[in-house]
Amino acid sequence: MATYVKVPFSTNRIAVVAFPNKCVYCELPAETKVVQPVEGQSHYEDNRGRFVTKSYSTKVTIPFCKTHMKESERNNTILKAINILAGLGAFPIVLFLAPLLGSAGDNFILLVGALFLAIMIGVGLVWIITLPLKYLVSLFVHSLKDQTGLGFLGSGVLGVKIKFTPKKDALLFRFVNAKIASDFSSLNGVK
Ligand SMILES: [Zn+2]
Known about the structure:
Radius of gyration: 21 Å
Mean pLDDT: 86
Bound molecules: zinc ion
């Protein structure tokens, strides 16, 4: 069962987090480290009524045993391949919908609407094709379900998912290994 740990930022959104010197996935002594970028965005309206998007990013260094670092890299390669396959599968269907764009003629609003629709259908299709593919592969590659994805072609890691809290005042860690989560909480003085 996954366990969540929240580490609040001390100053200036600098996350000073300490990991136990063990593989984050299997608890064996750490042999290597993986630097994982963490990104977040917040959208709000400023006092002049303009919509503003603010981006946040930080990096967290995660300890691994060599076996699980390799497994983490392999899982990323598999997930990227699945996403590319899904993209290739969705492409002809979106192309088939292209006449929609043609029928919009020179009406700019209709053309933008049709283009938007085609993109939405494309994204939806990629998502629909990805799900069963991931499920099928995870029947053979069991640790795939413990891999945390980051965007369409971004890389995740095995065993821990890290994101900003909605208020962007802390980092939220989701651990697959409950013992590591407990050690991590003690080390960072949080519950
Ligand atoms: Zn390990």
